[in-house]
What does this fold into?
Amino acid sequence: MTTTDDLKLVASIQVGPSATYAVVSVRASSSMTSPSNQTRSSYEEIRWDLECLAEIASPTSITQLNQTIKSDLAKIGQVVTLTELGTARVMPAQGVGGSLHGYPRVELTDIPDKSFGQFQAFNLTAITRVPIADGSGIVEHTTETETITNTDGTIETSVRGEIRLANGDDASAWINTNIFTPVRSAADAAGNGVITRVSITDDTSMAKYAYTVKPGVSGSPGVTQANVDDRTVADVTGRRVRTISGSATGTGASTFATAQRVAEDSNLKLLREDGPSLPSIPDGRVNFSYQYVAGVTNAAFPGIFITRFNETIDEAGGGAQINTASFFSQGPTLRTGVIAPTVYTQRTEIEFIGPFANHGLTPQLATDNISGRPRQSRKAQGELKTVVMSWAYIFPAPLASYPNPRTINGLI
It folds into this structure.
């Protein structure tokens, strides 16, 4: 581009390191802006509307000139310098001490009816926003609070906000120090839980955040939600199992889960412990399950914890045999034969926690009448052990009273 005596640079515009272009008219404006909930200004918006001229050596280069103008001037984030009679005004580049991220912005519009020959006219609009920080470095800070009252009367508070700091400051770190940390401290003191969220863009001086204060579970500091299921059932074998399971969320979730484990005693033994688990993602839920077996101790079976016991005694045989006979095609005759022996069978099953050697099963009838060796089987399932024994007894006649199987108080 060349400059003749017909085009003197009384005013000129330059964007970044671009070439300088002549300006024939200037309209400048400035306004102060603030969010609706703030009384002070958060940034100054500056606008320049310029009518400019560019000169070329030959009209045949008009297309190339227009491309050069766009390449030189249509930019974002670079310093814009307007010089009038030797005095320069500047829209600062984005960054520390300068304009907001994404400013200044420069737009170009051709003016065909004012372009002629080697002179091309165009409008240039430059807009920038310069932040105005308060004493704490805050340019803008807007918040919105929502309060929810649950059916149980507890109150849940959610806060959403957006903050812009002075260029170059770290908005995320500021939020964590000045918003999240005090909120967490207050919630911990009140036994409540806090869920936080922050989002940032390429401009680290600006961030959006949100947090929710959830009411804690009564008597459980740091637990915002919990459920516990305590159930005792008897299976088909007669064993009674108690299961305490559930989940909890919040900073005190693991402590809460551990506290749900009940102490063992003479009627309850812990069989299996699952948890507390590691906090899940993203809600931090901790799961737990404790499984107990109910039982008793008994002086007749020292050294073991009995969970199941059953005993049966069967009686078979006895009475006189009947003999039949017929002679010479006559009808049969009945005669009483010898008296058959009576057989008793004792079957005893015990499930317990303890050494196999302490099962304590013994024959309940006269040992002199035992036929052969007793039948025995053993089974182990985790800590639970099962022993089954059976004895056969033979008596010449039925016992005077039918023997009663044993029972153990406290068991089904």
